[in-house]
Amino acid sequence: MPQPKPISTSMFYVEFDGITEKKIKKISGITMTAQTAGHEKALASGKGGMTQWQSTSSGFEENPSMTLEVYLAKGDMQFYNWFKAVMPANAGGEGKWTENRKNGSVVAYGTDGKEVIRWNMTGAWIKSYKVSDFSGDSKDLAIETIEFVMEWVERVK
Question: Which of 32, 51, 73, 106 gives a 20 to 30 Å CA spacing to 139?
């Protein structure tokens, strides 16, 4: 049987409906946590002293999430405009949360440049938007940090 080949974390990309060709610095925390019940304590004790446990799952404890860091580019306002579109009108946004959920994918590539892993995201929207600090003595490039929440994430490859 062939040995599994580890995958580099430096060869990746993310895109959403209509948002492509970004300079991605970092993707972190593709997170899914199931909501469970019943696992906190034993259900019963059976013959031979065997403890019986039961646990159930009723979906996600919280919606799946992911954080993305993208280099700011002159004139590129796609993530900011998406965030503004989903924010409530009383918070300065457009209040169009339902119409502005997007589907997307996170892809990891092998050293040969071929896709080796893919997560598909369904119904994503921006939960928070942050811009890096600016300082006269900094040598860093400016980045946007965007936290996404999704209805569903599925690893398909």
Answer: 106
